Amino acid sequence: MIPTTLAVSRNLSHPPSPIMSMRMAADTMHTEKEVSASSPWILSKAALTKVLARPEYIMPNDEHENDRLDMHHHLATIMLKGRLHVVPLQENMPISVLDLGTGTGIWAIEMGDAYPLADIKGVDLSPIQPTFVPPNVHFEVDDVEENWTYHRSFDFIHIRFLAAAIADWPKLVGQAYTHLKPGGWVEFKDWDMTLRSPDNSLHPDSSFAKHHKLLCGACETVGRTPYVGVHLKEWAEVAGFINVQEEIIPVPIGTWAKDKRLKEIGAWNYVALLEGLEAITMRPFTAMLKWTAEEVQVLLAQVRQELKNPKLHTSYT
After folding, report:
1. CA distance 208 to 203
2. How much is the mean pLDDT over the chain?
3. ∠ at Cα 245 (179, 257), nearest 5°?
4. Which pLDDT belongs to residue 5?
């Protein structure tokens, strides 16, 4: 999987907007959670009804998944060399920020600490975010695939790890353009889930190759492509964004890369993959491919064994 960072800008004299993007991915499935009146969430019953009824969201919604999402956040910051974003922002300005698919809210919370004058809204289908957050951070349960109903525009829109979670990406990118202030920025970070082996150490008949092909195919069958990163630049330009800047970062699986930074990226990616392997597999394989749970477990045991082989050199493009 190769994360791509794409940055684009919106013209001050025309409705177009900036976008920044980076190729990486995240998938989630959502269930209802009780929210108190003192919570930082805004909860929509209609949104929750949609979430609970949607079979195409393949990820679980539990503590293990939350840990996986936080690991991907750490992985993203390593890719960005410790930064939360790549677009140019001023710390002492009262900017408005929208974080789509906020997950556990960790990025929004860290942004709230880093930009105390900013007003930060995190949006997700599931209210799994913590209650105690910086006073300038707020969370809302909403479906970003529906028509956006925000009554204001934003200076910065952050969209990360939504590969295999969105059916209509051009619509999503277009709505980001519409809700961005002139001169604002959008930053995408998402995956291209193409699996590569630079030394051909991954045999096409291996369990890992089989698992990857079937998993990506299952996502495609419900209209949610895992191959997002390769299209971000085109989608941004078609939407009207200007100053489109793209950075593609290789993501090894494991510590085989010689480069020190790629070795660290690969280590975290390896842990995140192993920790989340069953979570990202069980629903697509049983619900969409009609495998039994026992058949899935047999395949996963074979995949885990292959991933432990230090001679296996793979990465996402």
Report:
1. 9
2. 85
3. 125
4. 55
Residue 154 phi, psi dihedral angles, 5° rounding: -120, 150
Q: What is the pTM of this model?
A: 0.84
Q: Which residues contact 259 (CB under 8 A, 6 or more apart)?
A: none
Provide mean pLDDT across the span 67-77.
90
Please state the rounded mean pLDDT for residues 201-206.
97
- Buried-state track 152-169, b at ≥16 Cβ within 10 A, e below 16: ebbbbbbbbbbbbbbeeb
According to DSSP, the β-strands at 154-160 and 180-192 are parallel
Average pLDDT over residues 97-123: 97
pLDDT digits (tens, 9 = 90+) for 113-167: 999 999 999 999 989 899 899 999 999 999 999 999 998 999 999 999 999 999 9
Picking from 25, 35, 4, the residue whose alpha carbon sits closest to that of residue 249 is 4
Q: Which secondary structure element, helix H or strand E, spans residue 8, and what is its range?
A: strand 2-9
Among residues 83, 143, 88, 130, the alpha carbon closest in space to that of 111 is found at: 83
Give every strand in the sheet of 195-196, ordered side by side. Answer: 195-196, 314-316, 251-253
Q: Please give the helix or strand (H or E) that residue 243 lies within, else none.
A: strand 242-248
Dist CA 288 CA 314 (whole Å):
26
Q: Is 197 exposed, middle or buried (0-12, 13-18, 19+ CB in 10 A)?
A: middle
Residue 7: band (very low, low, confident or very high) from pLDDT cuts 50, 70, 90 = low
Task: Copy the structure tokens of residue 295.
Answer: 């058949």
Q: Exposed (0-12), middle (13-18) or buried (19+): which is 35, by Cβ within 10 Å?
A: middle
Q: Which residues contact 100 (CB under 8 A, 6 or more apart)?
A: 123, 144, 157, 158, 159, 162, 172, 176
